[in-house]
Amino acid sequence: MWGNIAIAFLLAFIVAFMATPYTIKIAEKVGAVDVPKDKRRMHKKAMPRFGGPAVILGFLVSVIYLLIVMSIEGSINLFDYNNYGKKLVGFLLGIIVLSIICALDDIKTIKPKFKLIGQLIAAIIVVSFGIRIDDITLPFFNIPELGEIVQAIITIIWIVGITNAINLIDGLDGLSSGITAISSISLLIIFILNGSPYIAVVLITALAGALVGFLPFNFSPAKTFIGDTGSNFLGFATSIISILGVAKTYTAVVIVLPVIVLGLPIFDTIWAIIRRLIKGKSIKAVFKADKGHLHHRVVKLGFSQKQAVLILYGMSASLGLFAIILFDSGIWKALSFLLMVIVAISLGYKNFIRTKGTNERFECVECKYIYNPKFGNEKAGVKPGTPFDDLPDDWVCPVCGEGKDMFEIHE
After folding, report:
1. For 221-256, b where at least 16 C-beta lie within 10 A, e where not — what string?
2. Do the Cβ atoms of 36 and 43 come closer than 8 Å?
3. Over the stretch 164-204, which tens digit does the pLDDT of each residue have?
4. Which domains does the chain have, with CATH numbers?
């Protein structure tokens, strides 16, 4: 098993890493470029947003190669009673449909309702090919057997919900790809501990490898964005693989583990829906983008974009570890771990507030100009002793003209 895991990860990594520079060139030719037109966007310059195909290619090449090799050696049978061959065909068709819709959005920009329709069609295809959430067993409760229609509805809601959750959290360099990579590794460990179907282990490993291969181009300062094609694929793939991974034991604990692992994007999505409904007082308001997502709020606390991404990485990793400990060691050890994480975060934030702005210097990621609050910049009208946060919002780098958002703490 471990040899196949290593190959699945490395092959996906290599393909995604080598393909990403080509997607940057393609993005510029087809017009898949994100131009900042409003204050909601955290970047200040045009950026290619077509990295998704590189991740998808890395994932598919790795999975197809492993399935062929494993079928030849007899370690997996795609045509037994589990019908994994049929399910994977549905998965592939769903990826194709969703990728076409989202690629159009990356190139031309389409209305959110059309993307939602594409997500629903892809989810329905997957369900029609046999991938679905079956009966759930809860302790102390006798839940009647779920009918096929109920199973299909629950599965479609799960797939569309997670697809949008990952898509909505894609707001900072490397955020959605990094969080999904962390979640994938957490799910991989859970699948191994749970004795999950071999196919789920291969799929989640390939997804993690493709994302790690893409991250060097996407982490701050990003050379390319993953785009709607990529972020929708991440949520779509993760939601389906999580179903395949827990298919062996539909107990209460195992069912809730993917929800915990993906807790960050799920919470952000639920809160976004509630926030927009309250503010807009209509269903249409849910589809209107705003600047109230979790990553926006972390940046508003005074952290740089890179710091915000690393903080959210840490939160996602903590949720993943919580889920692993919960499954392996029980609720009390998991809660003890969670309490220690909360204490560490509280102490760290307190120390950040106390030292914030005292000795920090800020570097422009574009031209490497360093702003030192101690000296200011009198040529640009900034007096010595002016903290970076006190600079006007429209202040720009005196060397290259980039805005404040393009500055990060100089380490």
Report:
1. ebebbbbbbbbbbbbbbbbbbbbbbbbeeeeebbbe
2. yes
3. 999 888 878 889 999 999 999 999 999 998 888 889 999 99
4. 2-291 (no CATH), 362-409 (2.20.28.10)
